[in-house]
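Hi support team,

I submitted a single chain yesterday and got back a structure, but I'm not sure I'm reading the token output correctly. Could someone confirm the output below corresponds to the sequence I sent? I've pasted both exactly as they appear in my results page.

Thanks,
R.
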Amino acid sequence: MVQENNFSHIDFVRLSDLLNIVDSASMDEETYIAKASFIRETLIKTYMPPKYDVNLKIGSDEDLCTTYRGYIKFLTTDLAYTIGKKELYTSNGQRKKAFEKIAKEMIGRGYVRRLNLTSCDHILTER
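Hi R., thanks for writing in. Yes, this is the structure output for that exact sequence:
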């Protein structure tokens, strides 16, 4: 998009480049998929404040709670035939807990990105 429109003042930085852990220019799609979880975990470990409590934030911020519930709804429908396969979980409760955990991780990553965007001059992208 930047190149197509000749935007000279916009740069996109991939998470892997920002963290200096993988050279994204040499990464094909298969390598990216294999390293994506590691890159996201490193992002959280590097930038998440030690005392950030996602459960407390969800419980005290109505907008964030709504976002969290939306993530769970999305995960329930989107992952119903992949990670949500009944064979992977012994109960619906176990499946629900897995989706809640993923939704909380998504909230955490969003928080880290927001922090990073307010303190830098570039936009983070995953791919």
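A quick pointer for reading it: DSSP finds five helices and two strands in the chain. Let us know if anything else looks off.

Best,
Support desk
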